[in-house]
Amino acid sequence: MHAARLFARFFLLLALLAGLAPVFAAEAGQDALVQQLTAQSAAWDLAIVRKDKAAIEANMAEDFRQIDGDGDLETKASFVAGLLSPKLVLDPYTVQEFELRLYGSTALLSGRIHMTGSYDGKRIGSHYRYIDVYVRQPDGQWRIVSVQLTRLPPAPV
Predict the structure, then answer these.
(1) How does pLDDT run across 74-121, given as a tens digit for each residue?
(2) Less CB within 10 Å around the terminal CB: N or C of the chain?
(3) Cβ contacts of 53 within 8 Å, gap of 6 or more
(4) Where are the beta strands (DSSP E) in 5-154?
(5) d(C-alpha 148, C-alpha 142), whole Å
(6) May I ask which residue range the UniProt record assigns to the signal sequence (predicted)?
(7) Residue 54's closest CA among 40, 44, 67?
C-alpha cells in the first residue's frame, strides 16, 4: 500500500505541475515582452537623438499624440517635424526610474529624463517625467500611440 500511495502522490504532483505549466509559460512570455518593449523604447530614444526619421516613425502609430510639458498637443507629423528641425540638437540621455506595466495589449512605460542639447545655437535643458503608451497593433507590432510629459523643476545643485 505504501508504494501505491507514493505512486498516487507522484501523479498528483505531476498533475499539479502540468496545471502550472501555462502559468510559467505566460510569465516567461511576459518577461520576453517586457524585454522587447524595453529594448524598443531604448532604440526609439537613440533614434530621436540621431534624428533617424525612419526609425522614429516606424515606432509610432499613425494616430500618435503627444501632450508636451506645456500642455500642447502634437500629432505624429508635428512631433517628427519638431525633432528633425535643424535648429534642435539633443544630447544623449538616460532614463531614470524606468517602469513598464502591461495590461493585455497595452503597455505603459514611464520614467524620468533630463534632456539637454541646443536650440538655434543656445543651450537648453529640461527635466521631465513621462509616460509612453504602447498598443499592440492589428499587425502584431507594438507601437507608441501616446506620450505625456510633465515638466519637473530644475534639480537642486
Answers:
(1) 999 999 999 999 999 999 999 999 999 999 999 999 999 999 999 999
(2) C
(3) 80, 84
(4) 60-67, 73-75, 88-90, 95-103, 106-119, 122-136, 142-152
(5) 18
(6) 1-25
(7) 44
